[in-house]
């Protein structure tokens, strides 16, 4: 387990999406976050106290979380220098980038010298099996998206917590670096060898017979040329009973690909359902989650209502307006796991 409390790293980030890991920890594990570290040229903030490494240690922080995501998951020189400063101040360092902390000899040597730890969150599990698509018991919901970074993790966490509040057994299954840091466990699916993606998700959300739900965090988008392979493997491995589509209104193009438009919601939902039917023939859509964080409340409510009318599914912003309508749809038509299992 990564030692908390955390000092959250923003560094030099100018991109709000680039600090999504730090932002997610502040939102869902705020009680474990003492402050944020950012350089003078960083316009971003999480609303936490700005601290130096030494101030973070004095406030009780035990780990600096490098909660940023740059192109290709690289560890640039300035990030390595800041990690060294954290170690010198007495902080462990955690990162979820594709380039590993443990592959930086200077960081490894310094951590050993100071008796501290380096945590690489994006390590895939060992001894994975290829997916089989064999029917398995249990209720599973998967979030899917029109693009990357549209709110799939936020929606999945909101649905999980709302189910738990209703007294329903529910578990959040993390598939990305931020979700793993929040949950303390999971599979960084984009670090898994392609042949094993669906199998990794089968192992992450195994069969269950308690009538509870596994809510699986989606990644990427079937419509994103860079990441569609991960999204498809998730769909097949999750074997979902239900899908929730996530979208950020007003996004001008697919993330990182100027000129490539996002798909329409109806088209995106149908393609995801079609792909999911390979391993879950009875899969159904139960709702739409919009990330309206860039909108005023009344226009956001009107957009949710219009989307609901157009697609015939409950539509909400899970952070701003809750997810009760989606849960009502999800639970009213969900067959009992126990009876389904018994019929096999």
Automatic annotation (TrEMBL):
* Domain D-glutamate N-acetyltransferase-like N-terminal: start-end pairs: 44-124
Query: Which N-terminal residues, if any, form the signal peptide?
Result: none
Every D-glutamate N-acetyltransferase-like C-terminal domain range: 130-327
The protein here is known as DUF1611 domain-containing protein
Give the species this sequence originates from: Allosphingosinicella deserti
